[in-house]
Please model this.
Amino acid sequence: MGERSKSKGWCGWFLVLVVAAVVAVAIVLFIRKKSDNSDKPAPVPGPPGAIEGKYSDALKLAMQFFDVQKSGELEDNKISWRGNSALQDGSEAKLDLSKGMYDAGDHIKFGFPMAFTATVLSWAILEYGDQMDAVDQLEPAKASLKWITDYLINAHPSENVLYIQVGDPKADHKCWERPEDMKEKRPLTQVNTSAPGTEVAAETAAAMASASLVFKTSDSSYSDTLLKHAKQLFNFADKYRGSYSVSIPQVQTFYNSTGYEDELLWAASWLYHATGDHSYLKYTVQNGKGFANWGSPTWFSWDNKLAGTQVLLSRVHLFGAKGVSNSDNSGLQMYRKTAEAVMCGLLPKSPTATTSRTDSGLIWVSKWNALQHPVASAFLAVLYSDYMLSSRTAKLTCDGDSYKPSDLRKFAISQVNYVLGENPMKMSYLVGYGDKYPKYVHHRGASIPADATTGCTDGFKWLNSKNPNPNVAVGALVGGPFQNESFVDSRNNPMQGEPTTYNGAVIVGLLSGLVTTSSVVQSFT
Model:
């Protein structure tokens, strides 16, 4: 009888302890949840912290793809299978257009996406130059940027003339040869007052303006030259409005423009940052209602710069700027609200989350070059996350639900990790990264042995070869998976297997933002 009573006593005390433990855990979880949802901003990051090894390795590879794509007389060439090429480009107009970069797996220099590459690369350097420097990638980034801007300067020989293409895409695509062996004619295409091209002129202005900031301290004379061209090109683009897709219908086949209004806002935003001239800021505000699609999120790409513009102008609103009028500040607020709508669409648990995703969570918008959109979106998410942290902005609200900067960074990490191999194919879509990556990349130079001698058409045997590419297009970000997350590694599958130089810019920007943590500067000047 006594033993039984004693046992019951112990059971009672045990139950009391269990209940107390459950209550304690509940209190801790409640406090933690309350803390997580508090309005207290996260600490501002200091100088670059610990290096994230896998992103450092990936960044060093991605940076090399710019070397793979370079045209002209190469300097300090680190790609063993590349050599000098297209040395006579521009000669028919008595210009030196030998530099610049080939667009993709072909040998055309398309000025519209090339200028976008330069703008995004400049943006990445301006925001994350210290993080690039922490892994010895700042100087390679600046060198690649200058290789493009040297070309863009020469492509703008007078105020209202801009050469926007070197080579004939149809003729180029009838050949499969190394760029070093090209002997075909390379005709030039220009926009001017009679055949305007507002979007390409404005994008080139954005490239020049942003790059002028990159070189402002290291080479002030070069920076001044870039800024002079940027101002002239913006004036040309704005005064002689017209789409290059209308003026030059043949460009529609490859880089058709869906409108030029976004590029005008994008260029004006960069010119404001580069000059501090409030007239450019007023331009973005006064034209925002008609051009910016306020309240409507869009995808950032070579063709549509609205999301990028909204994030870039949000930085002005978040950090504040001297001399901004109340009316201009109200316009900036609209850009910021739209940027936050973009961010809310990206966050997977947001009430307004986009459904444009694969089952594994990759943003998926287009079967052609599918990875451009998730990588570009992730780049913007990292930027906005860092703007929030550095401006001590605790949260953004999506239809009543609150999200922290860390939520945006988590989304960005999910996208880049997918690219680097955390996907159903267990494949890295960044060539050279990991053990499994595309071996049949749709790229002429990579597919032909460096010691082979081929003409225009006999090189097609290398396109159709069943052997892997003899040369690694190191750092190339290929097109990527279909929506069902399958990928066919075939040289005859450019939809999925062709890399682009502008993809290189957005992946470099994204990786630079993730390679370590650091606060962003409040002003580029």
DSSP finds 20 helices and five strands in the chain. The longest strand covers residues 162-166. Residues 1-11, 25-36 have pLDDT under 50 and may be disordered.
